[in-house]
Amino acid sequence: MKVAIITDQHFGARKNSKLFHDYFLKFYNDVFFPTLEQYGITAVVDMGDTFDSRKGIDFSALSWAKNNYYDRLQEMGVKVHTIVGNHTAYYKNTNNVNAVDLLLREYDNVTVYSEPTEVMLDKLRTLFIPWINQENEESTLKLIQKTTCPCAMGHLELQGFRVNRQIVMEHGLEGKLFDKFERVFSGHYHTRSTNGTVFYLGNPYEIYWTDVNDTRGFTIFDTETLEHTPVDNPYKMFYNIYYEDTNHQTFDTREYENKIVKVVVRKKSDTKKFEKFIDKLYSSNIAELKIIENFDIQDPVEFEAFESEDTISILNRYIQEAEINLDKSIIQKMMQEIYQEACELV
To answer: Which positions ≥6 away from 38 have C-beta within 8 Å?
Structure first.
């Protein structure tokens, strides 16, 4: 039996941005649902962070999620196993109050898991592990040690895996706790990575600049062979354009419609030609444009930022090179959280 695994969908992301929901919908219409139909899939495992905000949801975002996702799955007769993630748990120390349980009770095809549970996926015994917090940590670790399930799926914060392409998590549980399993699949980190046993499958689409050029999508899992196959999302939201006296007349701007674009200026010999290039981008109905022309940072330690780096990469390297007597990994994590919160305000 083949099942679909998807994680970190973050419905309502970026303050319920219509731009992003339209972008999400293209993935569901063109990739996700056609793939379910192609493989005859009747079960979906959602590994957490289905909704973006732990404190509440915009009614229009909830309506969008029901109309474009949950109603369609129900009509198709697809069973949805939904694991509580940190973004869907209201409190930080318990999963008892969570968005997916409260918002999706009308769907008889949706089952929510707020505590670790052994579940049969066809004939495969699978351990579902929701977000581990103060209340459930002890019982969760005991069940992980006790279970004989060959497969686990959850929303895990494990050290040694990439949060994104720039940051490796140095905190959290040790990956060796899961060595007993044949396969472990997890959400939480939005980029794909693995140690051979644990597989972070990544989220379906780009949400922040840290996601640029990082392949996204969902996964088809075979419960008999334990093989899993990524299904890539071909659609992007963020684009880097490197300007080097680029001819605006021959530059094709059609793919940038309703996209967020960053123009990195490497060579600009003629200001008027550059302005025509920028005007052409604007005329293609881009959603947002940023122009970067100068990478010099005036700093007493002569820190240099490079045009190939994004904001998080620059911040992380600056902290790493700084002469401070503090745990730099903690500061990097704090800066990443602040940066993501700032992005959500845009």
So the answer is: none
Which residue among 202, 232, 262 closes a domain? 232
What is the model's pTM?
Answer: 0.86
Do both 330 and 223 map to the same domain? no
Residues 44 and 163 in one domain: yes
State the average pLDDT for the chain: 91
Domain that holds residue 311: 238-344
Please answer whether residues 319 and 331 qualify as being in contact, where contact means their C-beta atoms are separated by less than 8 angstroms.
Answer: yes
Residues 218 and 174 in one domain: yes
pLDDT digits (tens, 9 = 90+) for 17-69: 999 999 999 999 999 999 999 999 999 999 999 999 988 989 999 999 999 99
The SS3 assignment for 76 reads: coil
∠ CA(121), CA(122), CA(126), 5° rounding? 30
The per-residue pLDDT for range 78-95, each reduced to its tens digit, is 999 999 999 999 999 999
